[in-house]
Amino acid sequence: VRTRSFVLLAATLAWPAACAPADLPPPELPVSARPEPQRPQFHFTPATGWMNDPNGLVWSRGEWHLFFQHNPYAPFWADIHWGHAVGTDLVHWTELPPALAPDPVLGMPFSGSAIVATGAAAASCGPLEPGADCLAALFTSHGGADASEKQSLATSADRGRTWTPYPGNPVMPSTGLANWRDPKVLRHGGRWVMALAAGPAIEFHASDDLVAWTKTGEFAPPEASAKTVWECPDLFPLAVAGGGPERLVLVASGGDTLPGTGVRYWTGGSDGSGFVPDGPARPVDGGEDFYAAQTWSDAPDGRRVLIAWMDAWRYAMASPEGEWRGAMTFPRELGLRDDGNGPRLVQAPVAAIEDLRAGPVARWQDRVVEPGTPLAAGSGRTMDARLVIEAGTWSRAGVSVRVGGGEETAIGFDAVTGTVFVDRSRSGDASFDGGFARRHDAPCAPAGHAWDLRVLVDHSSIEAFACGGAAVVTSRAYPDPSSEGVFVWAEGAPARVLSLEIDALATAWPVD
Ligand code: FRU
């Protein structure tokens, strides 16, 4: 790495950006109404205050609702509310006033889910505003008078703008379990089914009206130890590309109580009361900044779209952001693919990213990169880069972004370990956490003779999608704003880049 960075620096000096062979004229980007240097421009962040988990993701009548764990008063975790944003395309969001606030008796509204309530479950909404569905949220009430975790219901008859707590809350009183939280509700088998984290297990409950709940079963993942505390489970059906029986996908976050990064998934089936996995747990994302992932309920056209908190508890309250802290990942379209080893989750940025394209930064066909001689491929801080690299005898090959002044964030393939990685060991400010400056990997097998990579870069975030979306690595990074270079490199032997397309992306914030 040290050799390469020396060469990168030399290359930067030798090829001023305007003369670099692969550079196109830099696209003019509109100036964001939120220009703070570390604030992501096309990922959701709250205008001010703290944000952690996505909550209550639901689509209704053309609107995507994004609720989130939010402290509206300060950029650290405290006074938890449900923040709220809405949008019609999963990219441009309008933040609305918080939807749920702490309750003096029940406690703070912790994570949970929302659905379009129908049938008996819609009764608690009362009369609906014209053009509105009955939206119902199930969430954990944490703390309060009895310092416990219990589950509550709130409903909205006005497109999620105001919420009424169910007068009989909690609908699921405390059982005495200290960690019993984050209900995710789906319609399955003609009833409402809830996945609920219960320490080292995931419980399942069922209801007809969202008020009376009966426990039907539980799944105790063999990967968990007695110390594991699962959080934020999600459960949803998903079709396998090319046919085969639909599978249930169970996702849960296990934080620091699991080795590596903490969000896992299982595919499986239902035995009518619980969940029977097809095989072992697998990571959803190899990066460290990926937690509390949740999918949208009631999304149109059978879509399954996931978003996650793009931070890590270990350092989230110390990271160098601003009057706000916390970002969401870019929304991801989910699918299942079976290459002969059982169904695997595949992820891709939602297609609405196309609306942000602001002009080409680099376009290559068939170019060979020699070890020790990285090739410049434009510059920028918000971009969508797609590369296909031919399999060969190189040991590592990829692209470095945010290069400048001794900083670089390298994203690439390691043919020796069979992984795609994001290496933020020299990406910029890492002073706030002793374990931040390192590399994160996800297992990745090239399709045929080529490795495919797509990297979304957005000020302080990097998301790498590789191997047909079967491998994803999400990392925050805090480079100096002036570090904007992009270089393609190889180690061990020359690498042939079959194609490279880099586009600048425009801000999703209003423009000044
Ligand atoms: C996950 C989590 C949830 C909890 C919420 C509190 O990040 O710990 O289990 O509901 O955050 O903000």
Question: How would you portray this structure in words?
Answer:
With 512 residues, the chain is mainly beta. 3% of the residues lie in helices and 48% in strands. It contains 1 helix and 34 strands. Bound molecules: beta-D-fructofuranose. Beta-D-fructofuranose binds at residues 52-53, 69, 80, 110-111, 140, 181-182, 231-232, 291-292.
Task: List the bound ligands.
Answer: beta-D-fructofuranose
The number of helical elements comes to: 1
Shape: globular
Instruction: State the oligomer.
Output: single chain
Largest sheet: 6 strands, antiparallel
- Average predicted local confidence, pLDDT: 93
Portion in helices:
under 10%
Which residues form runs of ≥5 with pLDDT under 50?
A: 1-21
- Terminal CA distance reads 40 Å
State the total count of DSSP E strands: 34
Layout of strands and helices, then pairs:
Layout: H1 2-14, E1 49-60, E2 63-71, E3 81-87, E4 94-100, E5 108-117, E6 134-143, E7 148-156, E8 164-165, E9 180-188, E10 191-198, E11 201-207, E12 214-219, E13 231-238, E14 247-253, E15 263-270, E16 275-277, E17 282-283, E18 291-295, E19 305-309, E20 324-325, E21 332-338, E22 343-349, E23 357-369, E24 375-379, E25 382-390, E26 396-404, E27 407-414, E28 419-426, E29 439-443, E30 450-458, E31 461-466, E32 471-476, E33 485-491, E34 495-505
Parallel strand pairs: 1-20
Antiparallel strand pairs: 1-2, 2-3, 3-4, 5-6, 6-7, 7-8, 9-10, 10-11, 11-12, 13-14, 14-15, 15-16, 15-17, 18-19, 19-21, 21-22, 23-34, 24-33, 25-30, 25-34, 26-27, 26-33, 27-28, 28-29, 30-31, 31-32
